[in-house]
Design a protein that fits this description.
CATH architecture: Orthogonal Bundle
Mean pLDDT: 81
Subcellular location: Membrane
Radius of gyration: 22 Å
Membrane topology: Multi-pass membrane protein
Shape: globular
Structural class: mainly alpha
Number of domains: 1
Low-confidence stretches: 1-13, 430-441
Helix content: over 70%
InterPro entries: Na-dicarboxylate_symporter, Na-dicarboxylate_symporter_CS, Na:dicarbo_symporter_sf
Number of strands: 0
CATH topology: Proton glutamate symport protein
CATH superfamily: Sodium:dicarboxylate symporter
Protein name: C4-dicarboxylate transporter DctA
Organism: Rhizobium indicum
Length: 441
């Protein structure tokens, strides 16, 4: 097994069995079979998935803290911290707009909800009351105030990524500002970082069991009936995710000198885990580690990836536009060009609140429909049964999008080891630049 992200290909007949992705895939398939043939037993497997996700979440705060503090405190130019932040936000907003427009055009062309003729007034909303209540509590001012933790320690204990990032940046700048007096703290942070990543390695041994529990619960709880009734939406959304990844993210990857296919292979373990658990949080620590190994400087990785979990949710944006317009089509709600333009404008704000909330994308969808007032909010009950299935597509796109965002900002800031990038996920262009002439050998 390769719990800490190293590429390892041991010789022998059992080499495949030792690969983390294969073990997670096996656990996922067993979960699907159990959910299909013994639904009641499968639902009882939910604690295995929950336990794995909780173990990962307990490490996210400490890992972001030590990574960001170590990266910033080790920088000689504090102005570069501001530049990294500004460039990250510019890139995040640009790619978010592209994702929203891409999803909107695709669902308008495919029209998966057309002909369903659902009467919104007849929909039973009992199953979505919790989500609706949470959606009503969300506002722009509360979102920004929530970035500031109640105490320094609560940011690390409550698991809000932006709160951890906020205190980490402040602490890193402070350590750098006091110079030599902060050196002992810097060394402790460096040692703690190695220890925390070692713990993540141990936790990843339980990934196959976590995948088994999560997928068994999903199949056992919701069954396959909802797949057939809303099959066209599922197919359309997965096709849109694949096209967006290939066309938009593939173009970004090519510009950066990254091979999209090598990147998918490099992150294959993480992709399988995300698909099984429908949560990108489960691979955040490993993604930080792997992007550092791919040549991105620690200070960039430490800021871009945690920030991207709130501001660079490409897959979530595809989900929000696709499902919102699908519900309009299903309930025969006419949307004009201005309605759709207004929907994108609202989603530019509400999509930033999709981190740190249980059932995040579903809650943000409810908040968006409530804000626009055009599409019946009650209609979201139609997709409750397939939300976790759709989440498999959106979390995959979020993962790849954040990996590429790290490379983009690192390259833009001049903090990318292009030779190391070429040997890990490069597309050949960068390798050619660094090739040693034959005459010199």
């Amino acid at each position: 097994m390769t719990p800490e992200g190293e590429t390892q290909k041991p010789a022998g007949r059992f080499s495949l069995l030792g690969q983390l992705w294969f073990q997670v895939l096996a656990g996922t398939l067993l979960g699907i079979l159990l959910g299909h043939f013994a639904p009641a037993t499968a639902v009882a497997m939910k604690p295995f998935g929950d336990a794995f996700i909780k173990m990962i979440r307990m490490m996210i705060g400490p890992i972001i803290f030590v990574t960001v503090v170590h990266g910033i405190a080790g920088m000689n130019d504090m102005k570069s911290v501001g530049r990294v932040a500004l460039k990250s936000i510019i890139y995040f907003e640009a790619i978010t707009i592209l994702a929203l427009i891409f999803g909107l055009i695709a669902v308008d062309l495919w029209r998966p909800g057309e002909g369903m003729n659902i009467d919104a007034a007849a929909i039973d909303t009992a199953s979505i009351k919790t989500y609706l209540a949470t959606a009503h509590d969300q506002s722009i001012s509360s979102y920004f105030l929530d970035i500031i933790p109640d105490t320094f320690a609560s940011a690390l204990t409550e698991g809000h990524v932006l709160q951890v990032l906020f205190i980490s940046v402040l602490f890193g700048i402070a350590i750098a500002a006091i110079g030599e007096r902060g050196r002992p703290v810097f060394q402790v942070i460096e040692s703690a970082s190695q220890g925390f990543f070692k713990i993540i390695g141990y936790i990843m041994y339980f990934a196959p069991l976590g995948a088994f529990g999560a997928i068994a619960f999903t199949v056992g709880q919701f069954g396959t009936a909802s797949l057939w009734s809303l099959g066209e939406l599922i197919i359309e959304f997965f096709v849109v995710c694949a096209l967006f990844t290939t066309i938009v993210l593939g173009s970004v990857a090519h510009w950066c000198g990254v091979s999209l296919w090598r990147l998918l292979g490099y992150l294959w373990d993480e992709i399988v885990i995300v698909a099984a658990t429908t949560s990108t949080e489960t691979v955040l620590p490993r993604l930080i580690q792997k992007m550092r190994k791919a040549g991105c400087e620690e200070s960039v990785v430490g800021f871009v990836i945690p920030a991207g979990y709130s501001f660079n949710l490409d897959g979530t944006c595809l989900y929000l536009t696709t499902v919102a317009v699908f519900l309009a089509q299903a309930t025969n709600t006419h949307l004009t060009f201005w309605h759709e333009l207004g929907l994108i404008a609202v989603l530019l704000l509400t999509s930033k609140g999709a981190a740190g909330i249980a059932g995040a994308a579903f809650v943000v969808l409810a908040a968006t429909l409530n804000t626009t007032g055009t599409i019946p909010v009650a209609s979201i009950a139609l997709i409750l049964g397939i939300h976790r299935i759709l989440a498999e597509g959106l979390t995959f796109v979020n993962l790849i999008g954040n990996a590429l965002a790290t490379v983009v900002v690192a390259k833009w800031e001049g903090k990318l080891d292009e030779q190391l990038l070429a040997t890990t996920i490069g597309n050949g262009r960068l390798r050619a630049r660094h090739q040693i002439p034959a005459a010199a050998l």
